[in-house]
Amino acid sequence: MAFLKFNKSELVNLSYSLKREIISANKTGAYCNTSIVTCNTRRYHGLLAVTLDRFGGDKFLLLSSLDESLVVNGKQFNLGIHCYGDIYEPRGHKYVVDFKADPVPQITYKVGEVVFTKSLLLVPDTDQVLIRLDLVKAPAKIRLQLKPFLAFRNIHSLTVQNPVANIGYTAIPGGASFRMYSNFPDLFLQLSDKSATYRHMPYWYEGITYSDEYRRGFDCREDLLVPGAFEMDMKEGDSVVFSAATVEANPASIKRKFNDLLKKTPEVTNSREQLVRCADTLICNHNNRKKVTAGFSWLYTGLLRETLVALPGLTLYANGNASEFEEILDNLIADEQERLFRRTTQVESPLYMPIILQEYIDDFGADPAKVWKKYGGTVKGIIESYSPGERKEVAMQPNGLLWAQMDRVALTWMNAYIHGIPVTERAGYQVETNAFWYNALCFALEMESRFGSKDGGFIARWTPVRDMVKENFMPMFWNASRGCLADYVDGNGQNMDIRPNQIYAIWVKYSPVDEDLFASVLRVIDNELVTSRGIRTLSPRDANYKGVYEGTQIERDLAYHQGCSFPFLLEPYCDVSFRVKGQSFVKKAQWLIEGFYEDLSKHGVGAFSELYDGDPPHEAHGAISSALSTAALLAVDYIINKYKED
Fold first, then answer.
1. Which ranges constitute the DSSP H helices of 82-204?
2. How far apart are CA 74 and CA 196, in angstroms?
3. How many CB atoms lie within 10 A of CB 514?
4. Cα 124–chain centre separation
5. What is the pLDDT of residues 102-142, one digit of tens each?
6. Tell me: the pLDDT tens digits for 2-37?
7. Using alpha carbons only, what angle is made at residue 643 by residues 639 and 646, rounded to the nearest 5 degrees?
8. Under DSSP, is residue 245 helix (H, G, I), strand (E, B) or coil?
9. Which end of the chain has the smaller Cβ count within 10 Å, N or C?
10. What is the pLDDT of residue 252?
11. pTM, to two decimals
C-alpha cells in the first residue's frame, strides 16, 4: 500500500520516524512493537513480548531489540539505535533509506555501496519472532554481527542491572538460550545459517531512555543485558533468518518457515482489508480461549466493556463470523460473572449485552429464539442485578431509573483519575446508563414474551418498571432550552455539560426519547462535538475543555474525557444520523472515516488509534491499535454500504 511506505528524508528525521510505530500481534498473546527505525521509545516496545500464565496472564518483554552491525573492509557500521538521555547512540537510522509495512515490516539500509534489508515477522501461533536479514548488494564479503538486548520483565515495568540476573547461557543448535530469572521461560536465540557463531560477552547497557515515557513524565530509563554477539560472513545475495522464541527451533527449518509464512501473508490492497487485518490481530486465542485485546501494546485482554462494545465490529462486521462472535461472548460471560451480576465500576457496561444481541439478530439474521434460549438467562440476570440492594454502586430508584454513586469513584467509561479523585465522577442519574437500562428492559420483555418462560413472572415484575422508566426519562433528562439531553442529573439538578453520552439515548433500538426530538439532539452534537477524527468528549465552549492530549500525566488525564476525540463514538453517531437524515448522510459518513485511512502512516503504522486531540489538526494518541476504534470503523463502513445499496 502506497500510504504505508516512507522515504529516506522522513526516516532519517527522528522527530518524524520515532512517532511512527509498527505493531504485530499473534493469537498466543505475543506482540512485536517498536518504531519504524527500531528505536524503542516506550517501555512497552520490544521485538518479543509474550503472555505468561505463570505470572497471572500478564505480558512480559523478553527480547527488547537486536542491533545489527556490518563490518565492511575492516570498518564497522552499527545499524542499531538507542537513546541515552539526550544522546542517540549508535545512530543507525542515518543508513535507513526505505521502509514498507506490507506484507511484513521491512527496513532497507544503505552503507556506501552495501544494501541490506531487515524484515520482521511474528509467527501467528507461536511465541516466536523471525527476522530475515538480506544482503541485497555488496561489493565484497561482509561480516554480520548481531547483539540481542534482553529484558525479561513485565511490559509495565523497567529493569536495572542487578546481581540476581543469570547472565549465563546454554549452547543449542544454531545459537544459545537464556533465562535471566527463575520461573521465566527460556529464550532461544538461533540463526538459520550453520556457519554462524556465538561469542559470550555479557555486558549491561545502562541508562537506555524511552523518549515517549520521558515526555509524559514517567520513569523512562533502564539497563538491558547484552549477553554476547552472533557473527557470520555474508556475500551479495545471501540471507539469514534470526529466530527468538520460547521454544527451541530447528535451525535447518527457520528460513523455510519464514518464507512459507510470508507467502501466506497477503498484501493489503484497500482500506477495508487493512481494517479486517487489524481486527484479526485484536482477537487473541491464548490457550484456545478467544478474547478481545482492548489495544496494543499496553491495554488488557478480556475487559468487559471493551469486549462488549468492540465484539460485533471485530467479528460480525469484519467477516460475518457468527461462531467467533458467540465463542468470545461465551468466554466473556464465564470470566466476568462478578462484573455482570454483582459489582462493577462501569455501571453501564453489563447493559451493553442486549445491544450486541440486538445487532446479532437484526443485522446478521441470528435466530432470535436460539439467541434468547442461550443468552436470555444472562440478560435477565443482569437486569435483576440492578434491583435495590443487589449492587452497592448502582440501584433502581422508585421512579424506575438507575442512580449510580460511590464517593470518589467514576462509575462510567469516563473514568480518569488525578491523585485518586475522578475527573468526571458523574454521580447520579446518567443519561447513557438509563438509556441502556430502558433498552435492556424492552428487549428482555419482548424476547421473554415470545420465547421465554410460560409462568410470566419476569414479565409481570418488570413491565411496570419499563413503563416507569419511559414515563420518567424525558422529564429527568430533556432540556428544552438547550434542545438536548442532560449528561447526568444529581442533587443539584441537570448537568448540562455537552458530552457524547446523549448519543446513546437516541441510538438504542428502544429509545426512551421522543423520536421527533432526535434531530434536535443531533444538531447539538453536530455543532459542538463532531470532528474529522471522531466525537469530542466535551464541547469546546466548556470552561473545562482541554483540546490537546499532551504534557504530564495530570495534564493528559484532564484532557482524556474533557475534550479528546474518540473514533469509537462514530458508530452510534453515524447509525442514528443515517436513521434521521437518510442517504443524504452518506458523503459526510465517508468523510468521517476517510481521515483515519489517511492517518495509517502516523502513530501506529497500519493501525487505528485509540483517541485524537479535540483541537485541529487532531493528532493521534493513546494505544496505537485500538479494538474500539477498529470495530467502530468496520461498523460504520458496513452501515455506509447498506445505505448505498438501498
1. none
2. 19
3. 12
4. 18
5. 899 999 999 999 999 999 999 999 999 999 999 999 999 99
6. 446 677 777 888 988 999 999 999 999 999 999 999
7. 140
8. strand
9. C
10. 96
11. 0.95
